[in-house]
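How a chain folds remains the central question behind the approach discussed here. The record that follows shows the chain in one-letter code together with its fold in token form:
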Amino acid sequence: MTDIIIVGAGPAGLTAAIYAARAGMQVVVFDKSVYGGQVSLTSEVDNYPGVQGLAGADFATNLYTHAVSQGAEVRFEEVTDVDITAKVKTVTTSTGKYESKALIFAGGASRKKLGVPGEETFMGHGVSFCATCDAAFFREKTVAIVGGGDTALSDALFLANNCEKIYLIHRRGSFRAAHAEQEAVRARENIEVLYSTTVERIEGIDRVERIIVNTPEGNKTLAVSGIFIAIGLEPETSLFKGHLPLNEKGYVLAQEDCSTPFEGVWVAGDLREKPLRQIVTAAADGAVAAVAASEYLNAGAAGGTCSLPTTPPGF
């Protein structure tokens, strides 16, 4: 049995591993495929404090190397089931079952994709899922953003401060975003709204150069340097639906210390409900959850009473 199992090897999970291992805990991290999460698909990280112009893959490797250097074990096995109801937590993976005294979920959230030709090809080379992360790379350029909700319109306004022109593409005839956001978008001269329009494909040579869109008048070619896809997120919470409390969008409802209604179980990163999902907030969650889990285990090891109740206040 290990002290702490962490599910997810993105910034939240690996930061949790670093903090827990430095606290003297035996730590095992599980991820189904690759370390780094979404950051490994980012061309450059330029919005993490103290980091400028570092390739996303290099940032992810640094996190992984740091966690392993502290003694954390990272295993690339897909977690297929969990039991969080007992005091001893059980994690089932594609190769076997593992037990731990505490558990941190840090599986993150994946961006919904358009599923059109060129999207995968130009990922990190003009195709972006985060305006806050990548807007600076498109200063004085023309870009497109796809979506019609609050995030898409908020991203369009954010991009309008950096880009020469923005095509805001929405497949319906009206937006779902808040009225104030819609009015703000209409007031910006460098945002052109294309209603009832869908992206058919993304083209270029080494990076995005144009997109083909289907409009009510037929197909059109838009010359753009990038395309931002803001059609929603899917939190990786399928493992514990019916166990942990989720909001209407599927994000875990957790306390500010990342604790859940189950003693010895924390969540960290993009899968929990919060106002901002960035590398820095994921890392912060990982640190908070790891420290809380370590204190929980230390209290139990010392024969004291664990500080976290079975059902924390507010649930």
Summary: Residues 302-315 have pLDDT under 50 and may be disordered. The first helix runs from residue 11 to 22. The radius of gyration is 21 Å. The CA atoms of residues 200 and 213 lie 5 Å apart.
